[in-house]
Amino acid sequence: MPILALVTVALFGCTQNKLVIPATSNLNSISLDSTGLVLEADGSASIDFKVTKACARFNHDISSSSCSVVLRVVSTGNAPENYEISSIEEKDTANGIYTLTVTDLEISTNYSDEVRIAILKGSENGSVTYLLSNQSFTVTSSLYTPGSATFTGLPVVYIDTEDDESITSKKEWVNATLSIDGAGDYDNLDETSCLIRGHGNSTWKWAKKPYAIKFESKTPVMGLPKHKKWILLANFMDRTLMRNAIAYDCGQQTSLDWTPHYRYCELVLNGKHHGNYMFVEQVKVDKNRVDITEMEPNDNSEPEISGGYLFELDFHFDNDIQWHTEEGIPFSIKYPDDDDITTKQVDWAKNYIATVENTLYGDDYLDDAKGYKKYIDLQSFVDYWLIYELMVNH
Length: 394
Prior knowledge:
Blueprint: H1 3-10, E1 29-32, E2 36-39, E3 44-52, E4 69-73, E5 83-92, E6 97-104, E7 112-124, E8 127-132, E9 137-141, E10 156-161, E11 174-181, E12 189-198, E13 211-221, E14 224-233, H2 243-252, E15 262-269, E16 272-281, E17 310-313, E18 322-324, E19 330-335, H3 343-360, H4 378-390
Parallel strand pairs: 2-9, 10-15
Antiparallel strand pairs: 1-3, 3-6, 4-7, 5-6, 7-8, 7-9, 10-11, 11-12, 12-13, 13-14, 14-16, 15-16, 17-19, 18-19
């Protein structure tokens, strides 16, 4: 961007609620002694700048409401969001040399900005003019990953697999660490051990892969209730990146007890930026997710054997416990887990589904005592089916 354009951008918004006093008219240029600063989280770093003529006077007290020195990001013309000027000290006034210190605001760890120093030079008829430094310099977070700058403002999820191992399977877990830069909207997550593997059915075959995440212990993510298991949805075939979000949002407006919550983010996997993802709660039995009665292997008689059970309807037919009903509907049992469920519990669950289906297709399906209402919570089922149809869920 030409310097002239930068000056024009800098004129607006740079005097927010401040009475600014311009520098004397003999301020001709600003030059720097360095090309870059690196900031630790909540840390500071300094750079020297020189003004000519050396005798030029300007307010450099940053605690003053009339301080006339600001920073401007070259790409936007705006003030930086992740750090601020914390002090400006006189170093060698005879030669017009000052030391400017900037401090990280602990908002993000994913920034590397090209910035310029600007000093208010004049003010007339309500307009202001700034003198920009002859050179720019970079301000970079110490945790910044080269090539991963996103400029979207979304949280960034960093995953590094052990020995940079590729994720090629939906069954085999890979050791990894995961950290999250919450971008100021959510708490950051420090580097945390986890497992990662592929996820999905047809979506796993596409170029941008979805993933399943499993932490060693229940972990909160971006303001969502803590849990071990999460999903990273790629939304590869959805150019809007919004269809799943709309479905979840609609579900959450109904009587359904729970619909997965999500956070948009960007994914950096083994140092490579993979773009936009959705960090989503995986469908699991838990007090913060599908809150049903939890089963034990010895719950093999009434009333304990009646559940809770978590079923899934999925035509891919790739679960360990799965069957087609007489009407051809593919049911599977997702809870209790395959390793815990007993044969008696499987039989009870299959018989229950068969009873519901036979009732629906039977002569007495509308009977208040013997019909389908005996087995189905009507309000939530209607809401479920409306969402199912509106979202064209095949």
